[in-house]
C-alpha cells in the first residue's frame, strides 16, 4: 500500500515518538535498578543491556545501553560497546559525541578547535540532528570564549551570532561579555549582557502554562546578566536607568532580591535613596554577608549623624542571624546510622568511618565540574579553620560523580592549585553487597550535599545545595557541629 506524503510523514513521526516514549520507559526502569536494585538485578540488567545492544541498530537504544552499563560500573563493557558502535555506525550520534569529547575539546587554541568544529559540521551536519542543537551550541559558545580569550573579538561575536537555542545562548554571551569587559570593551560587553538579560526577562514573563524547563533554565541567568548590565550603567552614573531595570526585575523575580542587592544598593545611593540602601545592607548583613559592613557603618553614621549605638545595633543583627540559622538547621535534622565506608585519600591511604568514631564527621560531597560545590569551598575552608585545633571534629571532602577518566589527577591538581587544606576522599569504592558507591548508599541525588555525623556514627544533619557566602557557611557549620557534639534529646 502506498501512503500519501502527508500521511507518510505522520506515520514516520508516530514511529519516532513511540520509540522515544519506549526509551523513556526503559530509562526509568534501568534507573530504578541502578539506584535501589539488588546485586542480582544489576547483574541481570548488565546481561540484558549487552544482549539488546548486540541486536539493536537504534541509535537511542545503543546510547542508553552504553550509559547504563557505565552507571552500573561496567566501564569496560561500556567502552567496548562504544568502540563497536563507532566503527559500525561512523555517522551516528554516539560517534559524533565521542569525537566532540575526545577530539574537539582536547584541541589547544582557537584555530585548532575551529578546524575540528568545521570537521564536525561536515561529518555530522546540524540539520541531521533535529532536537540536538544544544550539542552544537556548547561548541559554539566554547569557540567564542576561546577566540575572545585570544583577543579575536570579531570571530567571538560571529560565532555567538550563530547560536541556535535562545534559552541557552546566555551561557555563551555572558562569559564572552565578561572577557570583553575586562579587556575594556564596555560597549560590546554591554550589548551581550543586555541581550541575555532580555532573553531571561522574556522567559520569566511567559504565561505560567508556557514555562517549561527551557524557560526555567533561561531565567536562571537573568540575575547575573542583569547585574552585569546595570553595573555598567552605574559605572556610567546612569542610576535612574539602572533602578528601572532592577525594580522591574524584582516584580517578576522577587527571589532574585539577594543576587541583585549590591547593585540595587549602589543605584539607590546614586539617586539619593540612602534609607532604602541602608535597609538592603542591613538585610544582607543579617544574613551573614559581613563584607558589606564598611558600607553599612558609613550609611548608619550618615543617617544618624554619628556611630553612637552602632555596636548594639550590629550585635542585634548577628543575634538575628544566629536565631535564623538555628531555625533553619531544624529542617535538616535526622537521626539514623551512617553506613560504614573505607575510601582512599589523595595519598592513597585508607580512611574509614569506623576509625573516626568519637569524632563529629562532616562529609562534603563534591565534584570538580560542580560550580555550586566550588563556590562553597571558601566558606567550608573558613569553617574547617575554626576547628583545626579541635581533635573531636573531622572534615572529609568526598569527591564523587567525576566524568573524566583522569579524575584523580584533576582533583589533586585542583586542590593544590587553590591551596585548599582539605582531606579529600575518592568515592569510587563500591560496596560488595549493593554495588553502590558511598553517595548512592547515602541517597545523594544532587551535589553539593553535606552530612554531619555524630561521635557515635549517627547522621544528625543533611544539607543540600550551597551558598557562596563565607560568613554564613562558617556560622551555619558551627551551629551544626556544636549541636552534633551534644547527645540527641529524646
Description:
- The protein is of the alpha+beta class and 490 residues long.
- The protein folds into three domains: 23-89, no CATH class; 123-324, Serine Threonine Protein Phosphatase 5, Tetratricopeptide repeat, CATH 1.25.40; 334-485, Glutaredoxin (3-Layer(aba) Sandwich), CATH 3.40.30.10.
- Helices cover 61% and strands 8% of the residues.
- It contains 21 helices and eight strands.
- It has helices at residues 5-36, 39-55, 59-72, 75-88, 93-102, 110-123, 133-149, 153-160, 170-182, 186-204, 213-220, 222-235, 239-252, 257-270, 274-286, 293-304, 310-330, 371-386, 407-417, 438-441, 470-485; strands at residues 333-337, 342-345, 350-352, 360-366, 393-399, 424-426, 449-453, 458-464.
- Strands 1-8-7-4-5-6-2-3 form an eight-stranded mixed beta sheet.
- β4 (360-366), α18 and β5 (393-399) form a beta-alpha-beta unit.
- The longest helix is centred in the first third of the chain and has 32 residues, at 5-36.
- The termini are far apart.
- 31% of the residues are buried.
Amino acid at each position: 500500500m502506498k501512503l500519501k506524503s502527508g500521511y507518510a510523514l505522520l506515520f514516520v513521526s508516530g514511529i519516532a515518538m513511540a520509540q522515544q516514549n519506549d526509551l523513556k520507559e526503559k530509562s526509568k526502569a534501568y534507573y530504578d535498578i541502578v539506584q535501589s536494585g539488588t546485586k542480582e538485578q544489576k547483574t541481570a540488567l548488565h546481561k540484558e543491556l549487552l544482549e539488546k545492544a548486540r541486536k539493536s541498530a537504534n541509535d537511542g537504544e545503543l546510547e542508553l545501553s552504553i550509559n547504563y552499563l557505565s552507571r552500573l560500573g561496567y566501564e569496560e563493557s561500556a567502552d567496548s560497546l562504544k568502540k563497536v558502535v563507532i566503527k559500525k555506525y561512523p555517522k551516528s550520534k554516539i560517534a559524533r559525541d565521542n569525537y566532540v569529547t575526545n577530539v574537539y575539546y582536547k584541541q589547544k587554541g582557537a584555530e585548532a578547535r575551529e578546524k575540528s568544529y568545521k570537521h564536525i559540521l561536515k561529518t555530522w551536519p546540524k540539520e541531521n540532528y533535529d532536537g540536538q542543537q544544544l550539542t552544537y551550541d556548547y561548541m559554539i559558545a566554547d569557540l567564542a570564549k576561546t577566540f575572545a580569550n585570544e583577543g579575536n573579538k570579531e570571530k567571538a561575536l560571529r560565532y555567538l551570532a550563530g547560536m541556535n537555542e535562545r534559552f541557552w545562548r546566555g551561557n555563551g554571551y555572558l562569559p564572552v561579555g565578561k572577557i570583553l569587559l575586562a579587556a575594556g570593551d564596555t560597549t560590546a560587553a554591554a550589548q551581550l549582557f543586555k541581550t541575555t538579560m532580555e532573553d531571561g526577562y522574556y522567559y520569566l514573563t511567559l504565561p505560567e502554562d508556557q514555562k517549561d524547563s527551557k524557560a526555567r533554565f533561561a531565567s536562571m541567568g537573568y540575575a547575573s546578566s542583569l547585574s552585569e548590565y546595570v553595573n555598567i550603567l552605574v559605572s556610567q552614573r546612569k542610576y535612574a536607568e539602572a533602578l528601572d531595570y532592577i525594580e522591574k526585575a524584582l516584580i517578576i523575580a522577587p527571589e532574585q532580591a539577594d543576587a541583585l542587592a549590591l547593585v540595587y544598593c549602589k543605584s539607590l545611593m546614586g539617586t539619593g535613596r540612602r534609607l532604602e540602601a541602608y535597609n538592603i545592607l542591613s538585610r544582607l548583613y543579617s544574613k551573614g554577608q559581613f563584607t558589606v559592613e564598611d558600607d553599612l557603618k558609613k550609611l548608619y553614621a550618615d543617617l544618624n549623624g554619628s556611630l553612637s549605638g552602632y555596636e548594639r545595633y550590629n550585635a542585634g543583627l548577628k543575634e538575628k542571624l544566629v536565631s535564623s540559622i538555628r531555625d533553619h538547621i531544624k529542617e535538616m535534622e535526622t537521626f539514623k546510622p551512617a553506613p560504614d565506608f573505607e575510601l582512599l585519600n589523595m595519598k592513597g591511604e585508607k580512611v574509614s568511618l569506623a576509625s573516626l568514631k568519637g569524632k563529629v564527621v562532616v562529609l562534603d560531597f563534591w565534584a570538580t565540574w560542580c560550580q555550586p560545590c566550588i563556590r562553597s569551598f571558601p566558606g567550608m575552608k573558613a569553617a574547617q579553620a575554626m576547628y583545626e585545633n579541635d581533635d573531636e571534629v573531622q572534615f572529609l571532602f568526598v569527591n564523587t560523580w567525576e566524568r573524566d577518566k583522569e579524575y584523580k589527577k584533576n582533583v589533586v591538581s585542583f586542590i593544590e592549585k587553590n591551596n585548599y587544606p582539605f582531606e579529600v576522599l575518592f568515592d569510587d569504592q563500591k560496596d560488595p553487597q549493593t554495588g553502590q558507591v558511598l553517595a548512592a548508599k547515602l541517597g545523594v541525588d544532587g551535589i553539593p550535599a553535606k552530612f554531619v555525623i555524630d561521635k557515635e556514627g549517627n547522621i544528625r544533619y543533611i544539607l543540600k545545595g550551597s551558598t557562596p557566602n563565607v560568613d554564613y557557611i562558617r556560622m551555619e557549620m558551627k551551629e551544626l557541629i556544636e549541636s552534633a557534639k551534644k547527645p540527641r534529646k529524646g
